[in-house]
Design goal:
elongated, alpha+beta, four-stranded mixed beta sheet, Translation Initiation Factor IF3, single chain
């Protein structure tokens, strides 16, 4: 499955549009992770814990996007857009959504 943020795929011709597909991932932040990330914010530096959670959420959303595209009969997704949001009480949840157009290319 080819997944790209561009509206077309160089060297490939789109022969059919299968519709818009999306994938989402919502992950809760652990209290201990929040505590240690807070300490990291105070002393400076990057929060590896949050970076790993963000990466995991992005991978889940993109995998779900690919599955939905395959179910629609597509072999590629073009125009992919990734959105990141924090949700819930105290912004304790991370949401990543991926959307794009499922297509068939030759």
């Amino acid at each position: 499955m080819i997944v790209t943020t561009t509206p077309s795929i160089e060297g490939k011709r789109i022969t059919r549009y299968c519709g818009v597909v999306a994938g989402e991932a919502i992950l809760g932040a652990n209290v201990f992770k929040d505590f240690f990330a807070g300490i990291r914010d105070i002393v400076g530096g990057r929060s590896g814990t949050y970076e790993r959670e963000l990466q995991r959420a992005r991978e889940i959303a993109l995998k779900e996007l690919e599955q939905r595209a395959a179910e629609a009969g597509a072999n590629a997704v073009v125009g992919v857009d990734l959105d990141f949001e924090v949700l819930g009480q105290g912004n304790g949840m991370l949401m990543v959504s991926a959307s794009g157009t499922a297509v068939v290319v030759e």
